[in-house]
Amino acid sequence: QIRYSIPEELTRGAFVGNIAKDLGTDVAKLAAANLQVLSDSDSQYFSVNVNTGVIMVSERIDREQLCGQNPRCFLHLKLAIENPVEFYRIEVEILDINDNPPQFPSDEVSLRIYELASLGARFPIQPAQDPDVGTNTLQTYHLSANDNFNLNVKARTDGGKFPELVLERALDREFRAFHYLVLTAEDGGSPPQSSKIRITIQVLDANDNHPVFDKPSYGARLVENSPLGTLVVKLNATDVDEGPNGDIRYSLSSHNSAALRQIFAIDEQTGEIRVQGNLDFEEATVYEIEVEAKDMGSPTMEEHCSVVVEITDVNDNAPEVILTSFSSTLSEDALPGTVVAVIHVRDRDSGEQGKVLCHVSPDLPFQLRKDYEHQYSLLTSTRLDREHVAYYNVTVSASDLGNPPLSRHTILPITLIDVNDNAPQFEQASYEVLVAENNPVGSVLVTVSAADPDSEQNSRLSYSILRAGGTDPGLDPTRYLSIHPTNGQVTAKFPFDYEQTTYLQFHVEVSDGGSPALRNRTLVHVFVVDQNDNAPQVHFPRAGEDSATQLRISPSIVPPALITKVVAIDADSGRNAWLSYHLVEATDLGLFSVALRSGEVRIMRALQETDASEHELLVVVRDAGEPPLSTAVTLVVLVEEKGPEALQGSEAQAADGGGLPSITLYLIVSLVLISTVSLVALAALGI
User: Fold this and answer.
1) Nearest to 406 by CA among 481, 318, 521, 299
2) What tens digit of pLDDT does each residue of 112-123 get?
3) FRET label pair with 138: which of 190, 201, 480, 622, CA 20 to 30 Å apart?
4) Spatial CB neighbours of 629, under 8 Å, sequence gap ≥ 6
5) Which of 95, 120, 140 is the last residue in one of the domains?
């Protein structure tokens, strides 16, 4: 390993060392060995002349940039030669030169020092920074000549130096308000380099003067009952200090009583004393106010003075109304002449100004009765009704006989206590409800509502269901219905069946919570609306389940002969009971027909030898409901060689005989009755 030392900031091409000489070899051999220089850093600061073996500077070297404040700085190189291959380590030490002067963070700094600062007080100054090392870095500070401050330099273990100003002589703001100093930082280079910072010191004022009033005492005269805000007197005090030390605040002294503080107030900025309470000659004829003026210094200084205020008497006392006895609640059934309050009046003035007259508004159901001098009784004059007026504000006006007269108004709030004198009233005299049959259990059919103008317990209502007079004893409404006792919702206990019940009426009774309770009733009409919930039932021809009805006809039957008649009945009403008959399936659809409305089954053409001897017909009976319901019946027609009457079978004879007209008549009558009831119900609902 070979070591060289060079100063920083050498120019390019500057000599570092002769490698051939230091290695003890011939320059020609180095050139023949293909000499190469390898650097450990990113920058190539050095180069080698293979013809001379001299190492030279190839780039500018800044020690502070490379190594910062490290006391020693090195750059490392490697020399590589061939034949044979060898490596040599070269270490170049970069020596510091004094190329950086000390630098303060700013060119000027300002300090604010209290003029009463203690001797020996220290005021640190931001230190200067010098990136050089060793003797070239910052070494000392110098302070310009002055009368009050010395310089102290604190040295830390890491070599840092921090300047401090030390107060050696007391400051006096009145003598000199500002001090201007210059601090110089100097390094140890040769020649040395330095920099300066200007220090401006402002001496802060101390509070050494107290305020002074322009008069030791003040006097004023006021009329009693002066308006609030009336100016009593304006004080004036001065302080020769400046800033907060000369800023004066006025206040009432703590020696003043609490009552006086409620009557007078002082503006702390202007020193104006104004009236903020009632001035009463009868209470005090003279007020003596103690006032203090303080500056805003620390510590504060103060001065005191007194203000004497004389009060001039006037007629300023209004009558007073005193309630000897008073009840704020009154029953609404109280009789006229009932005593509500006993009132005592007085006036602190004398003579005519002390005589008082009282009255109340004639529009109220109350009157005043004069019992004797200065005492009145408040009585009821008419009957009261809480539902009409529940609350009264009775204003009792008392006026004296002064000039001008003074008066006082006292409001007596009177609340009427409710009496249960009003029965509940339903919103409707009767209710009409349409409910579809098969309604869900618990569904709300109707909500009845009543109101009671009474209050609290007297207006708490309870509902119940009663059977209406003249209804069928077997139709107990409580069997089918229930009512919520507080909200009046009527609900169904069971689904309604139109085929069993088409109409229901009942009374709903409401009672209040008074004692005794008052009641009222309303009538509720419930109309059950039919739903298509019954399929048609075939009454003729009769057949068992999963079986067909057999009919016999002669091969020579003449069309359109009646074979049989399908008779069905639907328990529903209206459109839900309108039936239609349809031939859905047949062995030969063109051979038979079924009448749409009557259900008559007829043969449509003459039988031929090629026709089958047995025909199966599927007849569907369908109602007109929504959705429609249907029932099917199967007819088996047998073609046999018998007499014409016998071949039709006993069922056919019955269908064409006397049984059928009675059934048809029954259906027609039932349909007419159901339609009539439905029309009447709809008309009643419309009314």
Assistant:
1) 318
2) 998 888 898 999
3) 201
4) 532, 534, 535, 536, 622, 623
5) 95
